[in-house]
Each structure stands twice: as structure tokens, then as C-alpha cells.
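Q&A log
Question type: sequence-to-structure
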Amino acid sequence: MSEARRAIVFDLGGVIVRWQPLELMRQILPQHDPREAMRQIFNGFAPDAEWSAFDRGTVEPDALAERIAVRTGFDVDDLRRLIAAIPAHIEPLPDSVALLRRVKASRRYLALLSNMPRPFADHLERAHECFGWFDARVYSSRVGHIKPERAIFDHLRDVHGIDPARSVFIDDHLANVEAARRYGWQALQFQGASHCEAALVAQRWI
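Response status: OK
Response body:
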């Protein structure tokens, strides 16, 4: 058996692509307080929430809108518009794309590990060349597990032959960073592309 790989693993939302849900709430649901709308719609991304089921790939967009509407009382058509607006919203961040390019040039094995519904993942891969730079792409909706569950990290490790102890996982959410460390990965909390690059250079990842 070949030696397990040393990899640099990136999250997507808020790291490689824009994710500003408050902005979406203000644009699509202006009649609602944006923070309260976000709280109700995403339900804290609890493991049993409707949006988590969407991330797992077990519910389709129309059914998602209907389920959230029943629970919250929000207009189902407004919710459909919100879901439909997300692919255009999650554009790659230029500074992060530049960082990806530098990481790729360092010849490190480059992977992504993201809680991402299937329609959004499909859109990103079709629309943006930079997703072809990844050697491994693990989306929650394609494997049926979500961060911070151990199963999705183990999937990346086992299927793609990655050694967690010699690899670094980068995410903007501290809970995911802490979970990765518990599972034996080295991990960094993303606080901007320049900060991330400095940390990768300082720790000799690139």
C-alpha cells in the first residue's frame, strides 16, 4: 500500500466562496428582520434541521422550502427565491482563488471538504475553473455526512488516502476546526486569505 498523502484541505463557504447570509436575507426577504430570518431558516444548522438535510443530500430544494415554510410560517415562494438565489451569491473570492493558485503551484495535494447541497456544488463545478484544481472534492450532499461529524472527515481520509496527522484542514468555523483536531487532523481557522497564506508559509505547508 502506498504511503498516505500529505494534503491541504479547504472548506468552501466563507473561505473559498462568498457566504454572507445576512446580505441574502436583506435582498430576498426585506420584509423580515434579517438576523431573525436567518435564525429561523437555517435553524442554527442543527444536525436535524431541514437545511442540514439539504446539506446531506436527503431533501430537494422545493421540499426544503415547503418544510421550512410549515415550521416558520414564511411564504414558500419567498423561500424558493432565496434558495434559487444562492448559486449566484456563492461566487469565488478573488484573494482565496489566488491563494489556491499558489497552493496548487506548491504541488501539495489539494482537497476540499464542504457542507454543500448538491445543486450548489454542481453549479460551482460547472461555472468556475478553480474547482478543477482540487485533487479531491468531498461535498456533504454527495457522501451523506456533514461537518463536524467524524464520518465526513473519515471519508476524506479513507477514500482519498490522506494522512490527517500530516495534513492541514482550513475552515472559518471554529467548531469544525476543533472537531478536525479531535479527529487527528492539523487545522487552521480561516481569517482571510492573507492570514491563511502567512500561516501556511510559517508552518511550511507551502
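Response note: The first strand starts at residue 7 and ends at 10.
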